[in-house]
Amino acid sequence: MGTMVLSELALAVALALRSVALENGLARTPPMGWMSWERFRCNVDCQADPRNCISEQLFFEMADRLAEDGWRELGYQYVNIDDCWSAKQRDAAGQLVPDPKRFPRGIKALADYVHARGLKLGIYGDLGTHTCGGYPGTTLEYVKQDAQTFAEWGVDMLKLDGCYSSGEEQAKGYPEMARALNATGRPIVYSCSWPAYQGGLPPKVNYTILAEICNLWRNYDDIQDSWDSVLSIVDWFFTNQDVLQPAAGPGHWNDPDMLIIGNFGLSYEQSRSQMALWTVMAAPLLMSTDLRSISPSAKEILQNRLMIQINQDPLGIQGRRIVKEKSHIEVFLRPLSQAASTLVFFSRRTDMPFLYTTSLAKLHFPEDSVYEIQDVYVGKIIGRLKTGDNFSVVINPSGVVMWYLRPTALPVQPQHVVRQQVPSRGFRPILL
């Protein structure tokens, strides 16, 4: 596509946005919940595999687990249906309908069931001729009708994918769906896959515009059940942090995709690392695992109260990678409310635990400050640390050490709130 066409497209979108701005007041912190795709995919064979197929029973059971096993109270509130839920054809009125064998009671009954348990229901659509799994898509002429259908069913979140659609259709359709969802009068969190289909970066992706259309968006590839997949996502997000980090905030989030903790591809250390890095990224925490059989160790990681508090910090500032050592140790920092912050020390090594020594001064914390340090995974207060004090942490291979830092003494200076922006020369943590 030529530069002129791109700029004309951007102008058309910008003009359309004057009446589109999402302004739905939703997702002020990153959404939390459960999503079917990574773990259960498009398994529709309920005769051979009734326990694991995409059916109302699967979502009833996951809603029960969220409500009864301590997830809901921690903030995990969305039960999200992904692809392959619908019949292969729309009905005579052109309306999307759930597969009658796998969802015999319909989506409205499922939503009622979920709501009765203090939870919310998410659903999946695709802005194209077909969904990625080959089910009916939401082409432009169906956007308003499908938004109304979802609202009437009692849906609380929509993930709108982008298979089988062109760049021009996406540029029209994603803003149009925002407008259509607003027009229903029902609060529906809007998750877009638009940037992922446009390479995730400028000039094709305008994050200023995107933040006015969507509550969250997929930027990059689908996560798979492997450590290599997690690392590829981490690499892409932090390599491009100067573009991505300023785009995130209350009501509009970068989405690195689902948490795969509790499945088959990650070790214990790698599971702890995914949770910590997604938290630093202010990422949505959407688990995709079998909550009916999750191990105690995976559950403990996902239900870490301090971790969730950090992820849900009301300032909503996405963290950044601030150090990348030749020793394959990386350090990430996320500023939090009340002048607190979180640090993640991450090892890409595969040989042995590594003793990493640094100081808060080397990490550009303010001079003459004192911080109370709490280990996020252990839960204990480690002690107090002056900015100039050297300290060491032992980081396991593929693992993390994660700290929560609360200031106990700050240098005398005016307190003011500054939104973290793209740094010009090196990142400096900001007092808030």
UniProtKB/TrEMBL annotation:
Q: Which stretch is the leader sequence? A: 1-21
User: Which UniProt keywords are given for this protein, alphabetically ordered?
Assistant: Disulfide bond, Glycoprotein, Glycosidase, Hydrolase, Lipid metabolism, Lysosome, Signal
Which residue intervals define the domain Alpha galactosidase A C-terminal in the entry?
A: 316-399
Q: What Pfam families has UniProt attached to this entry?
A: Melibiase_2 (PF16499), Melibiase_2_C (PF17450)
Please give the Gene3D superfamilies that the UniProt record associates with this protein: Aldolase class I (3.20.20.70), Golgi alpha-mannosidase II (2.60.40.1180)
- According to its UniProt record, the EC number is 3.2.1.-
Under catalytic activity, the entry for this protein gives: Cleavage of non-reducing alpha-(1->3)-N-acetylgalactosamine residues from human blood group A and AB mucin glycoproteins, Forssman hapten and blood group A lacto series glycolipids; a globoside IV3GalNAc-Gb4Cer + H2O = N-acetyl-alpha-D-galactosamine + a globoside Gb4Cer; a neolactoside IV(3)-alpha-GalNAc,IV(2)-alpha-Fuc-nLc4Cer(d18:0) + H2O = a neolactoside IV(2)-alpha-Fuc-nLc4Cer(d18:0) + N-acetyl-alpha-D-galactosamine; a neolactoside IV(3)-alpha-GalNAc,IV(2)-alpha-Fuc-nLc4Cer(d18:1(4E)) + H2O = a neolactoside IV(2)-alpha-Fuc-nLc4Cer(d18:1(4E)) + N-acetyl-alpha-D-galactosamine
The cellular component terms of Gene Ontology attached to this UniProt record, alphabetical and capped at eight, are: lysosome; membrane
Tell me, in one coarse class, where this protein mainly resides: other
Subcellular localization(s) per the UniProt record: Lysosome
Q: Which InterPro entries match?
A: Aldolase_TIM (IPR013785), GH (IPR017853), Glyco_hydro_27 (IPR002241), Glyco_hydro_27/36_CS (IPR000111), Glyco_hydro_b (IPR013780), Melibiase/NAGA_C (IPR035373)
Source organism, top-level taxon? Eukaryota
Name a GO molecular-function annotation.
Answer: alpha-galactosidase activity
Q: What is its EC class? A: hydrolase
Query: Among the record's GO biological process terms, what is one?
Result: glycolipid catabolic process
**Which CDD domains does this chain map to?**
GH27
Assembly mode = Homodimer.
* Functional note: Removes terminal alpha-N-acetylgalactosamine residues from glycolipids and glycopeptides. Required for the breakdown of glycolipids.
Please report which protein family the annotation says this sequence is part of: Belongs to the glycosyl hydrolase 27 family.
Which protein is depicted?
Alpha-galactosidase
Ranked from the top, the taxonomy reads: Eukaryota, Metazoa, Chordata, Craniata, Vertebrata
Q: Gene name, please?
A: Naga
